[in-house]
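Hey, sorry to bother you again with one of my protein questions. I've been puzzling over a protein and I'd love to understand its fold better. Take your time with it, there's no hurry, and the full record follows here:
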Amino acid sequence: ISTLDDWSQQNVLDIGCGTGTLSLRLAEHGANVTGIDPSGESIQIANRLHLPKNIRFWRCSIESFAEKGQGSYDVVILNMTLQTIAAFEAAISASVSLMHRTSTMIVTLPHPCFWPVYWNYERKAWFDYRSEIPVESEFVLSHQPIPLGVTTHWHRSLERYMQAFLAEGLAIANFRELPTKTDTERMDARPRPYPRFVLFILRRSDS
């Protein structure tokens, strides 16, 4: 939320919004938010929230949303989304098509260098950092040790993501490696001396 100084009256597209938690927080900070997600179940849950007038949800992929010509947005957010999409370059391209010249794209991802360490597959025989690999793993929250199910994410190198952004005419305005608050407050209390997530702030290079 603190990535931008003022969300008031910003038209925001939250791609892969899930159950709407981030979308709702953005709306509470004054943004006009459209949240999209291909999961019908997630969108149903999002629509059960006590929604202000400045938020709406759609069940669709970013590609189909862009094809419908849904206008342009001041801020486009892909929060922990791209690693879940096989055709991620098409998703980036569709996202860029909804940006005007002064728009900002915000992308967060599991850190490609350290996520394999966190999930203990960096030394598996099948793992190659430079390869694009689908990885199945248990979904576990830091504060809840019991797995909530199985998820699939795509491992890609940091270079792979950066090349995809540059190919779509995006310039990197800021880049940060992010720890999480729970890294120091987890139940097992083991130190994590590396960042678990990355944040990109991107803008069109012709802006």
In short: The two ends are 23 Å apart (CA to CA).
